Amino acid sequence: MNVNQSAPPVPPFGQPQPVYPGYHQSSYGGQPGSTAPPTPYGAYNGPVPGYQQTPPPGVSRAPPSSGVPPTSTAQVPSGQGAYGQFGQGDIQNGPSSTVQMQRLPGSQPFGSAPLAPVVSQPTVLQPYGPPPTSAQVTAQMAGMQISGAVAPAPPPSGLGYGPPTSLASASGSFPNSGLYGSYPQGQAPPPSQAQGSSGAQPPQRSAPQQASSFTPPASGVPRMPSMTGPVLPGQSFVGPPVSQPNHVSSPPPQVLHPGTQMAGLPGQLPPMHSSQQPGYQLQQNGSFGPVRGPQPNYGSPYPGAPSFGSQPGPPQPLPPKRLDPDAIPSPIQVIEDDRNNRGSEPFVTGVRGQVPPLVTTNFLVKDQGNASPRYIRCTSYNIPCTSDMAKQAQVPLAAVIKPLARLPPEEASPYVVDHGESGPLRCNRCKAYMCPFMQFIEGGRRFQCCFCSCINDVPPQYFQHLDHTGKRVDAYDRPELSLGSYEFLATVDYCKNNKFPSPPAFIFMIDVSYNAIRSGLVRLLCEELKSLLDFLPREGGAEESAIRVGFVTYNKVLHFYNVKSSLAQPQMMVVSDVADMFVPLLDGFLVNVNESRAVITSLLDQIPEMFADTRETETVFAPVIQAGMEALKAAECAGKLFLFHTSLPIAEAPGKLKNRDDRKLINTDKEKTLFQPQTGAYQTLAKECVAQGCCVDLFLFPNQYVDVATLSVVPQLTGGSVYKYACFQVENDQERFMSDLRQDVQKVVGFDAVMRVRTSTGIRAIDFFGAFYMSNTTDVELAGLDGDKTVTVEFKHDDRLNEESGALLQCALLYTSCAGQRRLRIHNLALNCCTQLADLYRNCETDTLINYMAKFAYRGVLNSPVKTVRDTLITQCAQILACYRKNCASPSSAGQLILPECMKLLPVYLNCVLKSDVLQPGAEVTTDDRAYVRQLVTSMDVAETNVFFYPRLLPLTKSPIESTTEPPAVRASEERLSNGDIYLLENGLNLFIWVGASVQQGVVQSLFGVSSFSQITSGLSILPVLDNPLSKKVRGLIDSLRAQRSRYMKLIVVKQEDKLEMLFKHFLVEDKSLNGGASYVDFLCHMHKEIRQLLS
Ligand SMILES: [Zn+2]
Question: Which residue has the higher pLDDT, 38 or 908?
Answer without folding.
Answer: 908
